[in-house]
Amino acid sequence: MLINNGLVYLIALPLAGAAILLLAGRRSDKWGHILATLLSASSFAVGLLQLSQMLGRPTEQRAVEQKLFEWISVGSFQVDAGLLLDQLSICFVLLITGVGTLIHIYSISYMSHDHDRRRFFAYLNLFIAAMLLLVLGNSFLNLYVGWEGVGLASYLLIGFWNQKPAYATASKKAFIMNRVGDMGLSFAIMIAFASLGTVSFAGIKEAAPHASTASLTAIGIMLLVAATGKSAQFPLQAWLGDAMAGPTPVSALIHAATMVTAGVYLITRSNFIFDAAPTAQLLVVIVGAITLLFGAIIGTAKDDIKKALAASTMSQIGYMILGAGLGPVGYAFAIMHLLTHGFFKAGMFLGAGSVMHGMDDEVNMRKYGNLRKFMPITFVTFGLGYLAILGVPPFAGFYSKDMIIETAFNAGGIKGILLGSAALLGAGITAFYMTRVMILTFTGAPRWDEKAHPHESPILMWLPMAILAIGSVTSGFLLSRGDALVNWLAPLFAEHGEHEELLKPIVVTSLALLMVAIGVAIAFMKYSRSEVSNTAPEDVSFLTKIVRRDLLQDDFNEAIFMRPGQALTSTLVKTDELVIDGAVRGVGSVALGSAGALRGTQTGFVRSYAALILIGAVALIAAIWVVTQ
Amino acid sequence: MTFTAPVLNYTILSPMLIILAGALIGVMIEAFVSKALRPIIQLILTLATLLVALVQVFRIRGTESVSAAMGSVIFDGPGFLFQATILVISIISVFLIADNENFTALAAAIPGSAEEQESIQKGNKVTEVYPLTLFAVAGMLLFPISSDLITLFVALEMLSLPLYLMAGLSRRRRLLSQEAALKYFLLGAFSSAFFLFGAAYLYGYSGAISFAGIRSSVVGGSGNDIFLLIGIAFVSVGLLFKVGAVPFHAWSPDVYQGAPTAVTAFMAAATKVAAFGAMLRIYYTVFANAQWSWTPLLSGIAIITMLFGSFVAIAQRDVKRMLAYSSIAHAGFLLAGVIALNKAGLSASIFYLFAYGVATVGAFAVVTLVRDSSGEVTDLNRWAGLGKRSPWVASVFAFFLLAFAGIPLTSGFIGKFSIFSAAYESGAKGVVIAGVLSSAIAAFFYIRVIVLMFFTDSHEDATTVVIPSVLTRITVIFAFVITVALGVYPAPLIDFINKFATFIR
What we know:
The complex is a heterodimer.
Chain A: E1 2-3, H1 7-24, H2 32-55, E2 64-74, E3 77-85, H3 87-110, H4 117-136, H5 140-158, H6 165-196, H7 201-207, H8 213-230, H9 239-242, H10 248-257, H11 262-269, H12 271-275, H13 278-300, H14 305-325, H15 328-358, H16 376-390, H17 396-409, H18 413-442, H19 459-480, H20 484-489, H21 505-528, H22 542-548, H23 553-599, H24 606-628
Helix pairs in contact in A: 1-2, 1-4, 2-3, 2-4, 3-4, 3-10, 3-15, 3-19, 4-5, 5-6, 6-8, 8-11, 8-13, 10-15, 11-14, 13-14, 13-18, 14-15, 14-17, 14-18, 15-16, 15-17, 15-19, 16-18, 16-19, 17-18, 17-19, 18-21
Chain B: H1 10-32, H2 38-59, H3 77-97, H4 114-122, H5 129-142, H6 149-167, H7 174-206, H8 211-220, H9 225-243, H10 251-258, H11 261-286, H12 291-314, H13 319-340, H14 343-367, E1 370-372, E2 375-376, H15 386-389, H16 391-405, H17 411-425, H18 429-455, E3 464-465, H19 470-488, H20 491-500
Antiparallel strand pairs in B: 1-2, 1-3
Helix pairs in contact in B: 1-2, 1-5, 2-3, 3-5, 3-11, 3-14, 3-19, 5-6, 5-11, 6-7, 6-11, 7-8, 7-9, 7-10, 9-11, 10-11, 10-13, 11-13, 11-14, 12-13, 12-18, 13-14, 13-17, 13-18, 14-16, 14-17, 14-19, 14-20, 16-18, 17-18, 17-19
């Protein structure tokens, strides 16, 4: 493995930004956002430099490592803090710093009225640094540090406007649900160390073939738990919708393009574990398939534009997880979808932010309408993202999503048919709810309040949107041309044989496009042909009501975990008060009593102190006499 | 009898000579320099002296000599470590002492007299405290490297006498301060007498005053054991008095409370290092072969000391007294290192002394910051709610308390862990059990203060925290950084100590 000592700058630059902005406090209000943006951009530049160097090396020498310092050295447990940049992590590095920088630029304008803008940028930089550490760590333990770091940044940013109690609660909810996933990761690390004796990627990759399937399965399942938490997958998906409480650039960067895809990274990075643990792998595809439908269905009933996009994110990550669960043949497609999704979803979130910016922070789509006249640039950039997520050729999503659906069908047997059908159905529903978002927001009759004055956003905001829109159009074609990304990532994954094709690619593509057309058509019939009310209708079917309640995800969590949990804690509190505190108080009062008595010896008179010394000395002599007798 | 000129190895003695020279120059400055200039000149002189001495100690590290001063001084690895520790603690204490707010304007004036008033109005400052500090430091440096009973006694007095004076210099509540000084002096004299008495017995036993001579008698086992045992017991009384072990502790709460807080910090930290340094040397080398006789004794004292210190601290309402009892408990923990009588015990004791000394100076430095209009407030009830008013100061103090309690990620945890494991290895299981138990008790009152500061609403007569002066700030930050660093990454210091921690005989 080549040594490269420049990797640390990728992380150090944004980390320094966070430190400077937080430590300098209000003094950096004037220039903090510019510094943060520049540092993020420099990190991106370092990433590009690394990519150009990497391209210049032969395939087997592309990965580079940097050892930072000996971190833990306890007996046989040796962990160095080290970074690893290979073909997989460079994709993430460029996505994080590239999209991250665009969102920094966007935020300069978006947050310009917020008097805590500097703190916002500090957290953004902190997030970039933590996320880079996550994807650059060369062991699960280093990854874990970044994993927790992004969790913290996400918590701080969701609750950025924590003066509103609901927002503070949302950040707490996200944090707690993430903790469940984080426990999974820490268990995975512990099991890996206990059974394989190492936690570095290289070490585990080497040890995995000789390890027992049981322990690999256990590690795999725990990693999956971690992934479901961070990536808002079933059953730990409920926090993502509430996380939209954060400022919209945060939703774009953290809760669409980067952090929530960390679960996909984790599974792809641990491919050597999942390849050897078929049961865990099967669970991965099940989780992916359930979530992609779950998210899509929730998306159909959302009137809040950001929550509709959040549901869509959940669903799209479901596609990625599904792809990653399909084994060596699917990893590259999962990553491709992750990258294209990074472009189009971030672009659409920024578009939503732009709409909110022009509409006095209104998020209810029923109060929009006909905005394309007032916000042409937002309309075009959002529209390109829309075409990309639908998978209309030749936009980005077409290439990546189509490949996942195809691979799912080819998974073999009944499993392949089920997974493929789920993915296909998901594509149809996606088309429906995204078309609904487009129609409600940009077309039809205006339904906004008298006070609203919709207007286009300033250049600092629409420029990043435009750049992301270019990515939404071209990235799929570029990444799949000549199997560019597949070949690029191939050295990391196990070889895979030719699969028997259940359906010919052209058939899958046609079916997918057909589903999309049906979805679009239904949406048009329902929302374009008739007048849309600016309040959500109440006389809806039972099913709609359930979908509006997010398929009862919160009710489920409350019934299954929260209430029994509360009962358990209140019982524990009572036990604590009666039994434990009782004992402690008893001991405490005995101690206090005896302390009081002992304190009596401290009279303040020198004579009694001297007497005490004398008694002590005599006692010593007496004791010696006893000992020697 | 012919008189031969003494041969002195000045290199080995240089740290002490530097300190003494600095102290003498300080006395001259008192005599000849104008009042206005004295504080700053004395501060610079004292710091420079201590720093030069520290550098010199580091330069001579690794040298071993038993004949530096005609057999009266022994310099070896542990000697180097003790001296370096004492100097580091003295340096950070001096910053605190330099904060003149703590000292009386005119020590000789009767409290409340017109003379005192006049002196305060003139803005006089007691700069004598600097040379006194240096004299005490010189004694402390000599104490752990003495190698005969006479030198040991001289060093004991040399470090004690300036401290008696310094304890009486408090600016506020001067009567209390003077009472403390007198008590300390009387009881110190009393215990010195025991020490001398014990020394006489040891001479009677072995016919020698040098450690080597006594040791060879102990190894040979030729003399009268009763003499040896009484000698050990009485010499121990003198030493145990200095470290504040029960039942020879009674002076310490009163003196800690009465003395100016800066002096208390210096005394609590540096004296303990010197006294334990001497104690470790004597028990590890001179009395090592009579282990059967003193281990049960010292174990008993250690157990009583730990439990007593921890228990009584619970009932304290004054932060300085609480810290005094906490220091008694810590003396008990340190005795476990003496009892261990193995290399691990020695290394652990030295690490513990360094970590504890630094945290102690830091904690007392914080105490000097919490005041009301009439000076420092040491009444714990009035510390309630400090965390809300001055979160930084309260957090730092809380951190020092956690270090005293031995919570992981502080130096205290590493110290306690290593000292108890060393004692356990040597078979002193009872001491370890008592130690762990009393650590738990001690944690109770440390954490109670934290609860008081952060989770209790403040009273109306709330204290204010003064903005720390640069000097005090240096002390607090330095102590804090070391305490954190030793808790998070102690390996380098432990390795360093291990390299040097072997007594020569």
